Amino acid sequence: MHLQESGEMYLETIYVLSLEKNAVRSIDIANHMGFSKPSVTRGLGLLKDDGFIEKDSDGHIILTEKGRNHAIRIYERHTLLTDLFIKIGVDEQTAADDACRIEHYISDKTFDAIKAYIKKKELQS
């Protein structure tokens, strides 16, 4: 199943927030993303229906294994691409913004090739 960019952004946000906090709530997501609470509620509902997240009895959002795997993949793309762009001379904000756009559209094949290239270059250094 291919998620739309917005779904991937929600998963990535939940993942990042879960690294910072013990419990992630929809208001945390809304504040982090700058979205309205109703928009977040709708987006989370779609992710729940598709099996990417669950909510516990206190209303905390929890990534399922499927959701966590997808979130980690997107987050890895974001961080690797951001770092790469900074290394080639792009300022940090532009690098992060561009990585955020690209991470949703780059193919696995191209991303894996970039990862392999970076690893090879780091080993040669």
TrEMBL record:
Q: Domain of life here?
A: Bacteria
Domain HTH dtxR-type, residue spans: 1-64
The Swiss-Prot or TrEMBL record annotates one GO molecular function as: transition metal ion binding
Q: Which UniProt keywords apply?
A: DNA-binding, Transcription, Transcription regulation
Family per record: Belongs to the DtxR/MntR family.
- The protein in question is named Iron (Metal) dependent repressor, DtxR family
Q: Which organism is it from?
A: Eubacterium ruminantium
